[in-house]
Amino acid sequence: MIESPGTTARDESQVLVIRPQGWWPRLEFGELWAFRDLLLSLTIRDIKLRYRQTLLGIGWVVLQPLMAAAVLGFVFGRVANLPAQGVPHFAMALVGVLSWTAFSGSLTRSSPAVVQNVSLVSRVFFPRVLLPLSAALASVVDVLIGMVLAAVIVWRSGVNLGAAALSAPLWVLATMLLGLGVGLAAAALMVRFRDVQHMLPFLVQLTLLASPVAYPVAAIPPRYRFVFQLNPLVGLIEGLRWSLLGLPPASWFGILYAVAVTLLVFAAGMLFFRALERGFADAI
Fold this sequence. Notes:
By secondary structure, this protein is mainly α. Helices cover 65% and strands 0% of the residues. The chain contains 13 helices and no strands. The chain is globular, with a radius of gyration of 22 Å. The two termini are 39 Å apart. The N terminus is likely disordered.
């Protein structure tokens, strides 16, 4: 390039190079970092839109887990009379609901993020993965408030919060990553197959029934426990209960298995999304 007098060379850091995607998709974390301002803007937008024109606003973040924990604690504690390993049923159910909310919120909000932003996808270039990521990040506010609420109620219930409570954010983060990994795959499929948006709520409810949200794994008969723990949510919920309630997990191997599956699901969801991302504008 020949520069005319009085001109300066263009800063190469401002040049965006778009390379063709090979047979194996790349995660391109550097590209995500370059669009971090857009990610922040989309996250703030999602938070504002969620509670717009609501009477209680952010108060729903407190009421929903409290009501769910009260119902589940009554049904499984008083009616079914399942053991709670020495802690109040309400506290056990509340911690389980918090973990479940982190998973389901991340999944249900990230999965429709692409089809809900048709105008952006079809007109503007940006990493499409920012849409499900911003939707999942918007649910962090709910999770943080829920964690504070759970910690206060657990403390008021007479349970001593030890050093293990410091690991609670890590268990919640792992649960959100599991939901985001599934949500990324669902978001990519939903662009071409809208059946996913009808099937996903049903599958989410089935996962709720297959997870120990309101009861400990110890209540499961031993002959079924191994199959039950194939659900990675089981280990993540047990890990959060160990950190906040001090309950020993049924199996540390089950917890390590849950963490490994979570990382694999998240990585697979990212790769699957990136593999289909280039065709979103044409298919949507």
